[in-house]
Design a protein that fits this description.
Blueprint (H helix, E strand, L loop, with lengths): L1 H39 L6 E4 L5 E7 L2 H11 L2 E2 L3 H12 L16 E4 L15 E9 L4 E8 L3
Antiparallel strand pairs: 1-2, 2-6, 3-4, 4-5, 5-6
Length: 153
């Protein structure tokens, strides 16, 4: 009886996560594309997935080094270089997202940039806003991963 309950709960939770992703991934893709266009004049075609049933998602796309520089400048992102910087982003990375994706795993040589929390330049033209953004870029391949978490507002 107990094992049936555990199995039922596992299926239910997996289904919730799948439904959450299906219902929200296209919105995240549109919001990231709109944000990047509005704040940095960079056009992207992200492929996104939500992380579990959270407000956080991760998006993969391609971007040149010049486009990444425009994003960093336009979004007011900070390069993550010191132990202190990694301490700031550790709770965000713990949510899951880019570091859980193959090319951007913990041993990755990706350049990492972060936003500060809930700043005005993380708002889309439609009023949607993000609490934070992490940007991981592999200049040698042009791969870009963006982890973003929707603001509560």
């Amino acid at each position: 009886m107990r094992s049936s309950f555990v199995l039922l709960m596992t299926v239910a939770l997996t289904s919730c996560s799948t439904l959450w992703n299906a219902a929200n991934r296209e919105g995240l893709e549109a919001d990231i594309a709109q944000l990047f266009q509005a704040q940095a004049d960079v056009e992207v075609r992200p492929s996104c997935n939500m992380v579990g049933t959270s407000r956080t998602g991760a998006c993969l796309m391609s971007a040149s080094t010049r486009e990444v520089a425009s994003l960093v400048r336009g979004l007011g992102l900070l390069a993550v270089r010191s132990d202190e910087d990694f301490t700031v982003i550790a709770p965000w990375e713990a949510e899951g997202g880019c570091r859980n994706l193959g090319p951007f795993g913990n041993e990755s040589s990706a350049s990492v940039y972060r936003s500060t929390r809930a700043v005005d330049n993380l708002q889309t033209g439609s009023g949607t806003s993000f609490e934070y953004i992490l940007l991981y870029h592999k200049p040698e391949t042009g791969q870009l991963c963006v982890q973003a978490s929707y603001d509560f507002g």
